[in-house]
TrEMBL record:
Organism expressing this protein natively: Acidovorax soli
Keywords: Membrane, Transmembrane, Transmembrane helix
Bilayer-spanning residue ranges: 23-45, 101-120, 127-145, 151-169, 181-206, 226-247, 276-297, 306-325, 331-351
Keyword field contains Ubl conjugation: no
Name of the protein in question: Dolichyl-phosphate-mannose-protein mannosyltransferase
Amino acid sequence: MTIPPAQPTQPTQPNKPAWAADLAVLGALCLLAFAVHGSALQGFWRWDDGQHLFFLGLYSPWSVFLDPQVTRTVSGNQFAPWNLFVYQVNHALFGLNPLPYYVHHLLSLVGAAGALYLLLRRWLGRWQALVPAALLLIGAPAVHMAQQLMVGHYLDGMLFACLGLWAYVHAVQKAQWRWALLAAGFYLLSTLCKEVYVPWIALYLLLPLPAGSPRGWARWRFAGPALAVALAYAALRIAVFSGVGGYHRHALDSWRAVLAFAGELARVLTDGLLGTGVLGVAAGALCLACAVAGVLAQPAPARPRMLVGLGAATVVVVFPLLFAVQDYADWMVYTRFLWVPWAAACVLWSLKWPAPLARWKTAALLVFVAAAAQQSLAQRAHDRPIDAMFEAHYAFAMQPPAGQILAPFEFFSPISMTSMIMNANAAQWILEPGKPHARPALLRAAPADAAERARIRVWSEKCLCLVPLTSLPPGQQDDAVRSHLVNAGAVLQLGKPLPPMAHGYAGSIDEITVVGRQVHLSGWTPTIGTGRKLVITGLPPEAQARLDELVSTERPDVVQAYRRPDMLLSGFRARLSFADEASAQAGSKALCALFPGQLTGQEHQFLLLPVQGRQLCNEALIPEATRLASGDGP
């Protein structure tokens, strides 16, 4: 984010304490947040809530910070232990009632805006500091994130990051180490929330300080504790995850990719924050003009410091996006990635403009606000049906209607929705052991007759609800059943070490053969009926692999072993294609295969396939629980 240059603060009334007025501003921000995002209070469980609920029943609150195995499990290969900790705090206070979770969530959003306001007050007058804080609450990222409990750590991270800088400025101005240590503590908390706050250390070292603050070594020494935290964090992160990689490889694999990345970044920021139309493009151009005007408004000797500060802000904004700006089909699904860039864009409008241009600033700000409001409305319209879809599926899984069968609508992948809602169902068994809980019935085989067909429920985008399968036209009914019961697979190129995501081993890959650029697999999974979901992983991110074929084969031996005729088609044959023969050979030795369980008691679990009798890919196994045994569920 961009920190404005030093400007004289507005004088306060001698008979009115400054803190009282600032407290009133924070109250106004709270009212604004609940007015704009209050609909979240009617929300149920959504998105990844089921996974987090399941994990909080398995792991003690401190193990997510102190046990590297647990940290890897709950955060994949991103260092964000605070995320599950928020759920653990909420559950300790509120049980499984989602309403107070959302109240806490909106208060975290208010806290982020309030901390930004308090930070900017070190440079600006009250109303100047209020504008960016208010803009932060009405932008598309806030609209998107207010409805998702799973992003609470982003909001808390902003709170801690801003408070850290606020305390650091105090340390420099007062020349007191206690403030520097407090700043380092807040910075540490922000890094535990989300990795996007790690680059904020650049602001400690390079941001322009308020007028009268010490410069040079006198200011940098008070950044020492926070810098020590950053270095320790880097070492810890590498140790926990055996490297610096993330979910995706970075966008700059060569210098030739710089221009392409810069163009894609500009498009993502403009489209995601301000919209794709003429109004959005104009508002984006005005943001650049605002930064230029802010530099020109400074006295000539201060301009280099201002440019250095803008450079530090650019690092804060751009560096995390090196690992996020990919070829996503729908960027509005990932608007949370633009939370910090949005904060930076908001702060730009607190910069002073040169006197000849000052009268145009209000008009430019109105254009910016209009574009932001338009994009926020578009974001709300985009997210509302998705939120409703998740709520309907979670409600079915956690309070299964008697006699009904669910054909889940798989949103992200062929296994995502089923896994999340069954995690939530399993969480109830662990977290509320004294209460009776039913297991939802999921569609596993084609309906045998009209009566069974009438029991099936599917998602409808028309009513944003689950409807009887028989309410669809006959052709659509057959398509809905067929699409749910077909084999589906994907190649998930996470590399190694794999994030822990499997509960155990089952089935088998009996044979692996390499034919040129192709790898052929055959084996079986404990699958009911005709459909199978399979994920191939363990391949390095740079491997160019795809799953070309996944077909079912008959396994009478499995039927005999399990004494279940509905497992006759539990066998499979798969074919993967690689870029070249060397990649195929390497992939055949590195691949792992996971699938979601279907047998009773395994519906919420991912399972690993042993490879030719060998239990490989052990790093993908979820560690044993530190509070409750994983077998205490259904």
